[in-house]
Every structure is written in C-alpha cells, then in structure tokens.
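Troubleshooting: if your tokenizer reports a length mismatch, compare against these two reference records.
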Amino acid sequence: MDSIVPATSAGPRAVAPSAAIITLPGESSELGALWRRYDARPVRLVRTREGRNFSFTRFERAHEFMAGMTGAADEDMSDYLYSAGIVAQLAMSSHLLDVGFPDMWCAKYIGLHVDRSLAYSNATGFGYEDTETERLMEVLSPYWKWNTMSQMQGIEPDDGGFTRECVAGLITELVKHAAEVTGHNLRPGWRTGRTPRSSAIS
C-alpha cells in the first residue's frame, strides 16, 4: 500500500503540516489500480490546513444529515436510502479531503458514487473493509437514483433487501469510524441550526 501520512487526532480543528505529503502511487499500487478502474486522473495527495478544515466541515454535515434520518417509520424507503447515501458520502469525503484529495477531483471522479468513495478511502488508510457496508454502498450508488425526482421518472432501483434498521446501523458505524480515523469530534453540546442541503456534495 502507498505511504500514508496519518491523520492527527488532536481535536476537530487540529491541522496537518502544510507540507505533509502522501506518496504518489506507483502503477502496481492499490490506489493506482483504482485510477485505472475508474478512469480517473492520478493526483498527488498533499495534506493542508485548508483540506483539514474542509474535512471537519464535511464531518459536521454528515451529522446534520444523519439527524434527519430519524423520521417516521413509515417514511418512504427510497427517501431514506437517498439520505443514507448523502451521509455516507459526507463521512467518507471527510477522510478523503483530510488525506489530500482535492474537492474538485472528488466531484469529477467520484461524484455521488459512494462505492467509489469507500474504495478510495480504504486505499488511503480508512481501513473499513466490511462486507455488508460494501454491499450497501453498491446498492446506494449513485445515490441520486433514490431521490424523489428519479422515482417520479419511473426509476426503480433494487434496495438489496436492506431494512431501515440495518441501513441505520451500518451508516452509524461508518460515521463513527470516520470520526476515529480523522480525529474529528463534535464540540460538547453541538447542535445544528442549519437546514441540510444536498447540493454541492462530492
């Protein structure tokens, strides 16, 4: 695996040295294989203060959207899976931005494909190789297919047999793991007063 500069765990606003670099992958590396698999442009991963702060913002937003997944039990399952996709993408984006992936690169080469987010995350030290989580990410990807507009257009994706309870458990554990890996922790008494938005999520 490529040489990875570990994330700091000194708190939500801790920053990495601006010159912290993750080695550019060789052709035989796990990350190099993903460049080829997804036809993506290789990038040099450099950890920066800006990336670290942006990473924490994504972590906060993951919690905002996760709080919105506690609606009524009879809520449409498609809407629930759409929300799950947003939370998963925000949580893994927090890791990807922290280790140096540019946000614009993520938007172009990952987009709303949470299965790709998990693959790139695990190739850069995320360490979350769980079979059911991987299967859920495949079911969710790309998660736009679960939104209301897609349903109105007659798109009927396969939910893979996942229940609300199972999805909730898998997403909760994924977000917890993102917190452990990035070192991000919400401030005591943190509450969100912002209205979640699904736009501009990479």
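Reference record two:
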Amino acid sequence: MIPLDMEIRGDSPPGSQTAAPFDLVAPIYPALERLVFGLRLTEARKAFFDRVLEADRVLLVGEGNGRFLKSLIGRERVGSVKIVEKSHAMIRLMKNRVGCPRKVALEFIEADFLRCRLREQFDCVVTHFFLDLFNPPGQLDIINKLGEMTSENGTWINVDFTPPRALGGRVLMWLQYTFFRMVCGIEARRCFDESPMAAQNGWIALASLSFLGGLVVAKRYQKGSVPAASHTTPNTTG
C-alpha cells in the first residue's frame, strides 16, 4: 500500500450541545493517572500493540489525550486511524501531542460514540478505559455497535478495570468512581466484567493480560468463528 499523508478533517458535530464531562479534567488527567497508578496503565494500553499495527483500518474509541495514538502513529505503518472522542478538550490535546506525521490517514471525530455514524468497517477497534464508564446496559449497546463496525474476523482490544477482589482494590475503585461521578458525571458506580456481553455478541476472547495484580485486564477478542484449535483458555499474566 502506498503511504498516505495524514489527514485531519474538521471535527464532526458533537453528540451533545453540552460540554463533554472529561473536558474538566483533560489538562490534569495524565498527572492524576500517574500519581495514582504510576506507569502501569500506560503499559496496559500497549497490550497486543502488534495486533493494532497489523491492521490497515483502526478505530480508537474514547482515546482521551492521545498517548496511545502517538505511540501507534510513531511506528512505521500505513493505513488509516479514526478516533471517536466526545471531549473537545481531549481532541485538542491529541492534536497537539501527535503533531504532523505523514504515513497515516488520521481523522478525529468529536461525537458520542453511540450517536456517531461511520460508513466503513474496521480491521481493529480499540477501547482503553472506556467501557468502565458505563453500566451493563450501556456497555451492551457499545459492544453491539463495535460488532457492527468491525470487519469479519476483525479484532477488538479492550483494556479496562475489572471488579476487584482485594480490599485495597475495592477501596481504590470506590474512590476513583466517586471522584469521576462527582467531577465528570460518569454513569457507572463501579466496574463490570464485559466478557459475558462480548460472548453474547459473538466476540471470542483469544488472549488476556493482567496488570496491577488483576485490577486491570487487557483482552484480545476476535469477531466471528475461529478454527477449533484456537478455542483455548485465554493466557493471563501478571
């Protein structure tokens, strides 16, 4: 494929006329994350990174301030990357962060994901710390839409917090969700395991990696059927 110059199109109309909740914390979010979790969430975002690089058409949902995006387009690859992000402030930070690379066709779409209409299908969709903002009904709607927007045998990589077992993890998650509900008005009061809903919608979990003692889990899903030999228990490492 001939390398494509980067294209940053005008922002799509926002999904809501009100400011996106994360506009309030966008400038301090990286510092806040590092204060609480160090670099572990950055490491988790790079789980299955090679799978993303292999895809020609990539969709990032709820990318935030663009740290993963910068890593992605910084590698020698071609193709296209679309980013759906509701927060105008986060998109501005992303554009400042990535600069002007020339090998990737890049498009920012400022919109609520569930109200966004994209005509194409993607080889790989990526959701980093996005589903955990929603309760199960909202998660199910998102997972349904991800399936509709992913090509046959496409890949979905999800990195998220999981329901904690240890007391320390439960306290940390309570503090985190209380803060983001108060400041950003997120829907969820706690995190949920998306695996049953993913399986219900035909996503097959092929592998997983755990971080922070299992508090964060990265999962690689494949859409549709896979050879029988591939139906193995996902690998989990700490």
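Descriptive notes for reference record two:
- The first helix runs from residue 29 to 37.
- The helical segments are 29-37, 40-45, 49-54, 67-74, 88-98, 136-148, 167-184, 195-200.
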